[in-house]
Amino acid sequence: MNFTVGFxxxxxxxxxxxxxxxxxxxxxxxxxxxxxxxILPCQHNLCRKCAxxxxxxxxxxxxxxxxxxxxxxxxxxxxxxxxEVVLDRHGVYGLQRNLLVENIIDIYKQESSRPxxxxxxxxxxxxxHEEEKINIYCLSCEVPTCSLxxxxxxxxxxxxxxLPTIYKRQKSELSDGIAMLVAGNDRVQAVIxxxxxxxxxxxxxxxxxxxxxxxxxxxxxxxxxxxKAELLQALAREQEEKLQRVRGLIRQYGDHLxxxxxxxxxxxxxxxxxxxxxxxxxxxxxxxxxxxxxxxxLAGRPEPGYESMEQFTVSVEHVAxxxxxxxxxxxxxxxxEDEEVALDGEEGSAGPEEERPDGPEGTGGH
Length: 366
Prior knowledge:
The chain is about 60% helix and about 5% strand. The chain is built from ten helices and eight strands.
C-alpha cells in the first residue's frame, strides 16, 4: 500500500515554509526579524536594533535623540547590497517600518506552532478506501492500513493492532537502537582517540630513542678518534727517534769522510814535493795520520730492518666485526644509565687493553 501521494501536499508546504523562513532572516544577527522591522531606501530590511548598531558603529560621534544636542544625522552602508543609506537627524528612528514583513512573521510563527503530526494524519488516507484514514497496523504484513481493509479488504485474515500502540513500540525500538548506535559510536571514538594517543606516544618515544642512538654512536666515534690520535702520536714519536739516530750517524760518517778527504789531499800534495829532505820532514807525520785514520772505527750502522714500521700495524677486523653486531636490545631501557657509565669507563681505559706502541722504543740499539 503506497501513501506517498498523501504526503505530497505536506512536503510541499514544509518546503515553502523553509524558503519563507530564509527570506525572514536578518543579515546582521542571522535571526528572524524582530519588531519593529525597518525598510531601507534600497528596499532591504533590518531589525531596528541591528540597523541602529550598524549606524552607531559607522557614526561613533552621533548623539542619540535622547540627547539635548541635536545632531545633523549620519550615514552607513546596507549590509546586503552595500548601498549608502543617508539618515536625517532622527537616525534609524526616521526609517519606515515594514508592516508587511511584520505581519508575515506573525503568520509564519502561528503556522509553525501547529503540531506537524496532526497535519500528517489528515493526509494519511487509505489508497483503496480514499475516505478512510490509516488507523490500524497489520502485524502479519507489517504495514499500516485502515479498518475497511481489515474487515473487507486484503488484511481481513491478518492480525492487527492499534496504530498508536505500534507507533510507540517501534519508536521506542528505534530510540533504543539509536541510543545503542550512539553509545557504540562513542566507544569507537574513544578507541580512535586512544589509538591517536598511541601514535603520538610512538612518535615521542622514537624521537627520544633516535637521540639516544645518535649520542651513543657519537660517543663511540669519539672513542675511536681519541684512540687514533694516541696511536698516530706514538707512531710519530717512534719515527722522530729513528730519524734522529740515523741522521746522527750520517753526520758522524760525513765528518769522517770530510777529514779523510782532507788528509788524502794533504798526502797527495806532500808526495809531489821534489825535495827529498823537505818531503821526509812531513812524510812521517802524514804516514801516522793516514794509518790512524784508516783504523778509525765508526759507529755501527742501523741493523737490518731498522727502517721497518710494521710493529705499528693495527688489527681492526675483530673490532669491526664486533661493531657490526651492535643491535637493539628490547627491554634494556632500564639499563641505559649503566651502559652509559660502562661506555665512559671504556673511554678512559681503552689504552691498556690495546697493544701499546711503546715497545719499539727499545728496539734498534739506540
